[in-house]
From TrEMBL:
This is NADH-quinone oxidoreductase subunit K. It holds the Pfam family Oxidored_q2. It is found in: Membrane. It comes from Kocuria rosea (Deinococcus erythromyxa). It comes from the Bacteria.
Length: 142
């Protein structure tokens, strides 16, 4: 089929990202050749690690939610990269990634609603929560 970033059957001018200016690629670079898929896998690992580390260090809940999304994006990217290594690409990991994207969007939406509700929560536990219902269930209880 064609070069899918692996450099197996590509011509010498397209092998291992030499035409893309990737570090460590091409003749005379001094290191082993690096394919495009390996670069994407490194980016996926970096996203996952950076999101996870920042998640552990952050105190703000919104920052933590964003860090979870970054770490999840790295995991999804690694699934796409690993699926693209076969020729033709495996459709099952791609379907899993699409499902993961939908779950991530839903999780983020629910997380943002929960964050907003906790910011609006009353400091006094006996105080009525904000909303259309009052403490006894009557409408307009604010």
């Amino acid at each position: 089929m064609g070069d899918r970033g692996r450099g197996d059957d590509a011509g010498p001018e397209h092998r291992h990202g030499a035409d893309r200016g990737l570090p460590g690629a091409g003749p005379g670079a001094g290191g082993p050749p690096v394919s495009v898929l390996e670069w994407y896998l490194c980016v996926a690992a970096a996203l996952t690690v950076l999101g996870s580390v920042r998640l552990l260090l952050a105190r703000d809940p919104l920052v933590r939610l964003i860090c979870l999304n970054v770490a999840g994006s790295g995991a999804l990217l690694s699934l796409v990269v690993l699926a693209a290594r076969s020729d033709p690409p495996d459709p099952v990991p791609h379907a899993l990634v699409l499902t993961g994207i939908v779950i991530t969007v839903a999780f983020t939406g629910v997380g943002l609603v929960l964050l907003r509700r906790t910011e609006e929560a009353p400091a006094d536990p006996g105080e009525a929560p904000p909303g259309p219902w009052g403490p006894a269930g009557e409408e307009g209880g604010r």
